[in-house]
Write a structure and sequence with these properties.
Belongs to the HMG-CoA lyase family. The protein is α/β, with parallel strands linked by helices. It is built from 13 helices and eight strands. Helix 8 (154-167) links the parallel strand 5 (135-141) and strand 6. The radius of gyration is 18 Å and the shape is globular.
Amino acid sequence: MAEHIKIVEVGPRDGLQNEKQFVDTAVKIELVDRLAAAGFANVEAASFVSPKWVPQMADGAEVMAGIARRPGTIYSVLVPNLRGFEGAQAARADEVVIFGAASEAFSQRNINCSIAESIARFEPVAAAAKEAGMRLRGSISCALGCPYQGETPVAAVVDVAERLLRLGCDEIDVADTIGVGTAAQVGRVLRAVGQVADLGSQVSGHFHDTYGQALANILAALDCGVRIFHSSVAGLGGCPYAKGATGNVATEDVLYLLRGQGLHTGVDLDAVVDIGQWISERIGRPTSSRAGRALALKKAQ
């Protein structure tokens, strides 16, 4: 039996949130449904943030109401506060995602408070999620670098990981929000996080491909024992609050890599290639996935 790797598909939320033109709600619903049908056990479907800050995600409730839920699939939503959690709960989300930066400069610039204060703000959200029996995931942004302060201290990443674990997070994302990390750095950070969390079951790798390092970073994370990774179909994404951030690593590229490593994901690569071509057409620009492009051309011959 090949070892299983869990892929969290973040395209519908983290991928689309940075699109300038509003993506029709029906397209978002179809994207979530097609991804779930392709075999993803976890799809990040929407967010319940203020439309003032992320207008692309203003239709989160409509998206969650419109999807055809597949048994066994975890549908995740991002929430910034208790009000967002209440929206997520009303929308019957399976998992809520909270977040904190490992960079003091990023935290101060974007939400005007310290890292410690930002995590403390999520205490009522975490308590409510646990009381409701919902999964809780915590994302550590700028874990490998920050647009304002440069490289992030390893100790700061570990500190945020510990804080999120104390809140009761089931899973923690180590996120290279601006895609500056390299394989050696990934190894250092993850080995340190592994002192406070189980890398095989509690920690995920979330890599952006700004400098073309995402696949190398995934291999480094695999070597450390990480078995959960985030990716975005067609390489959709960016971060509206992180200057210079490009898309998440493309799901098609990750699946192609893992298949070559003899690892099992339970996801249909051919179906994901088709989805990547379809969503790229819908938003009017070519896919960012090199494997997706190559495989689509091969299928067309």
